[in-house]
Amino acid sequence: MLNYYSQRVSRLTQFGGAYLSGANLAAKKGWLRRLTAWLIKLLLGLMILSLLMVIALKFVNPPLWSWRIERYWFPLAPVKQVQHQVQHQWQPLTQISANMQLAVIASEDQRFALHSGFDLKAIQNAIEEKLQGERLRGASTLSQQTAKNLFMWSSRSFIRKGAEAWFTLLLELVLDKPRILELYLNIVEFGPGIYGVEAAAQHYFHKSAAQLSSREAALLAALLPNPWQYQINPPSAYMNRRADWIQQQMRQLGSGTLKQLQ
User: Fold this and answer.
1) Distance of alpha carbon 44 from alpha carbon 52, whole angstroms
2) Rounded distance, CA 207 to CA 51, Å?
3) Dihedral of the CA atoms 95, 98, 101, 104 (nearest 10)?
4) What is the arithmetic mean of pLDDT over 82-101?
5) Which residues lie across from 34 on neighbouring strands?
6) Which of 190, 139, 149 is nearest to 57 (CA)?
7) Which of 40, 118, 153, 209 is the S-S candidate for 201 at Cβ 3.0 to 4.6 Å?
8) What span, in angstroms and rounded, lies between the C-alpha atoms of 120 and 64?
9) Whose CA is closest to 196, among 213, 220, 175?
10) Which residues, at least 6 apart from 164, have a Cβ–Cβ distance to it below 8 Å?
11) Which bin fits 144, alpha (ψ -120 to 50), beta or left (φ > 0)?
């Protein structure tokens, strides 16, 4: 009799344990489903918000952008000296010298009028050069650089690159090429606290962006890879050589390049 009751208790214990284990598993699955649903809703919300932000750029010039905010609120040591000396004045593309427009295309993205945000040919060439032992060079388009300056933070990660690619796609889908170029020329950094081509033209040449000559535009474009390191007032021998190269590329591209943007 004692063995009989012991067996019954053992079976009940096993059944109870299995029931509790199944209940715990069901609870975990329910929690994972809720978490997954929440993450999907969050992702969709962020996608919709980012789309609305880019649509707004069709009609509104951004008063602030992430790169400028990061420079001001989270400055590196050299930046602290100039964080209260920001120079910036927005100019429509029609008030920016054609020389300047062509100079940044010649310097930064010669296939700007042809690609849809990503220059696959430039990426392929950069990879091939790296495999041949050369230093890896950047292949970012003007659209990518605009997305980075407008919306991204400066750290390097796969998450940031993915977000940059998403915003690049949105810029290309929502805006036309002239508007992307206008945004870029008005937010890109030309030196400590110097944002946009109008501020750069006034700072370096004491004239408006509409009056920039071919040489002046080439010198400003030569700053763009590293405006904190390079100087054009006066330009070094290296900067003069780089400006020479940019002017040569401008002549090869010709004014027809700007007409392709329309």
Assistant:
1) 12
2) 37
3) -140
4) 87
5) none
6) 149
7) 209
8) 30
9) 220
10) 144, 147, 148, 151, 152
11) alpha
What count of other Cβ atoms lies within 10 Å of the Cβ of residue 14? Answer: 10
At 63, is the pLDDT very low, low, confident or very high (cuts 50, 70, 90)? confident
Q: How far apart are CA 127 and CA 124, in angstroms?
A: 5
What is the CATH code of the structural domain delimited by 57-259? 1.10.3810.10
Q: Which residues pair with 74 in a beta bridge?
A: none
Question: Are the beta carbons of 150 and 167 closer than 8 angstroms?
Answer: yes
CA distance 47 to 170: 10
What pLDDT score does 82 carry? 47
pLDDT band at 126 (very low <50, low <70, confident <90, very high): low
Residue with the two structure tokens 């593309």: 93
Question: 262: burial class by Cβ within 10 Å (0-12, 13-18, 19+)?
Answer: exposed
pLDDT over 60 at 21, yes or no: no
Q: How far is CA 104 from the centre of its chain?
A: 16
pLDDT digits (tens, 9 = 90+) for 145-192: 999 999 987 777 788 889 999 999 999 999 999 999 999 999 999 998
CA distance 107 to 245: 9
CA-wise closest residue to 184 among 149, 225, 209: 149
Question: Is pLDDT of 91 > 70?
Answer: yes
Amino acid at 199: A
- In this structure, what token pair is assigned to residue 22? 């199944």
Domain boundaries along the sequence of the chain:
1-56, 57-259
pLDDT band at 194 (very low <50, low <70, confident <90, very high): very high
From 179, 175, 168, 159, select the one nearest 123 (Cα to Cα).
Answer: 168
What residue type is 139 in one-letter code? A
Lookup: tokens for 145: 């650089």
8 A C-beta contact, residue 172 and residue 116: yes
111 is written with which tokens?
């296939």
